[in-house]
Amino acid sequence: MLRGLYTAGAGMIAQQRKQEMLTNNMSNIETPGYKADQASMRKFPNMLIQALGTQQNGPGSSVVGELTTGVYLQEQTPNFRQGDMQETGNNTDIALLQALVPVNEAGEEAMLAYEVQNEAGEVRYSRNGNFAVDAQGFLTTPAGYYVQGTDGEPINTGNENFRVDEAGNVLGAEDELLGQINIAVIPDPVQLVKEGQGLLNYEGEEEIVTAVNNAEVTYQLQQGFVERSNVDAQQTMTEMMNAMRTFEANQKMLQAYDQSLERAVNDIGRIS
Length: 272
Prior knowledge:
It comes from Alkalicoccus daliensis. Keywords: Bacterial flagellum, Cell projection, Cilium, Flagellum. Its main location: other. By secondary structure, the chain is α+β, with helices and mostly antiparallel strands. About 25% of the residues lie in helices and about 30% in strands. The protein contains 2 helices and 20 strands. Strand 13 and strand 14 form a beta hairpin.
């Protein structure tokens, strides 16, 4: 009976964590470039139950059968599918549209991303093109991180009166070249880890290369547009309802086990 308590409890914990993940997806449905998380549920290994004191199947015991020991949320992986384009008219908004990217040995497509610099000076990646220009005239992410150019340095536009062509060249008011936005090719996107503020940290072993002047990559940048979140609101709401119902079913099972234990301890103990 105690094993049943653990199984129901594990199911409740797994569904609670999934619900938290889905809630976070819904809260970021309007965040430009946000990639929805997906849950991978796994079950614990089954236990083989045997009845002791019998001789039906070997000395001293007989096989009763297998007992499931619950499930758990193994991992959360982002879905890097391209989001829809939304026109904003803002000069500092730049959407990244990938058309052709390499495919790795596992058959998975690479992902393109902006290369940015965090507060520690480390390279990170982002799909949020809702940029801004800071007081020093540098192009930054919404959180204030510098957008990197192909020369590995932040891009100084001076002000918001600049133009970006499809290749990422940043041009000033008099069409002078101010720099070129670097686009990184992430060969194994599943190795990207979310760090908050729209930043992604790559923990893979394959080398990251630039998409600029790369014959294997086709992309374009659209100024005045942003890439919307790829969260599917209808599907996410359906999954949230299913997670809640599964949680409630495990909760009722847990309550039933608790009531059975109470009767075993109190009523049977009183009769004896």
